[in-house]
Amino acid sequence: MSDLTEWATAWPLLLAQAKEGAGGAAAKEAAGKAGEGGGGLFDALFSTPMFPIMLTLMLLYFLFLRPDPRKKKEAEQLLANLKANDHVVTIGGICGVVVNLSKDTVTIRVDDKTGAKIKVLRSAISRIGSPDEAAEEQAKEAK
Predict the structure, then answer these.
(1) What distance in Å separates the CA atoms of residue 95 and residue 32, rounded to the nearest whole number?
(2) 96 in the same domain as 49
(3) What span, in angstroms and rounded, lies between the C-alpha atoms of 110 and 136?
(4) 44 and 91 share one domain
(5) Is residue 98 a contact partner of residue 106, using CB atoms and an 8 Å limit?
């Protein structure tokens, strides 16, 4: 705790010395006040540009970096719940029905008439459900 107190009282002194090089009378006043113990941590935080920078970084973290693990968990859950006869859409936009599942791959029937099948990685599945259902969901979310 004493390190924090020392920092809070030394910070205005450092600012005053930096301003004194430019020859400002206000810097001498700030140095005098800092020597008296006035100001404190609150003034030290809000009188520097470091506070808005730290606030911005925290905001960016909570808006952009924090949601990523949540989305990753949802994607893992989606792939874990995958079963035969599910309609799926791949990352590349291929629509089909799951025929066979293995640990890392999924076999999808893409054409009912000819029975054409393709094998894709499990991670290539972007969503479960037919494209019509996905379009309806997107329309609901847009409203």
Answers:
(1) 74
(2) no
(3) 21
(4) no
(5) yes
The residue with tokens 């972007």 is: 126
Name the 3-class secondary structure at 118.
strand
User: Which CATH number is 121's domain given?
Assistant: 2.30.30
Q: What is the maximal distance between C-alpha atoms in the chain?
A: 88
Are residues 99 and 109 in contact, defined by beta-carbon separation less than 8 angstroms?
A: yes
Tens-binned pLDDT, residue by residue, of the chain (143 aa): 456 666 666 666 666 666 555 555 554 555 555 445 556 777 776 777 888 888 899 999 888 887 778 888 888 888 888 889 999 999 998 999 999 999 889 999 999 899 899 999 998 998 888 777 766 776 777 77
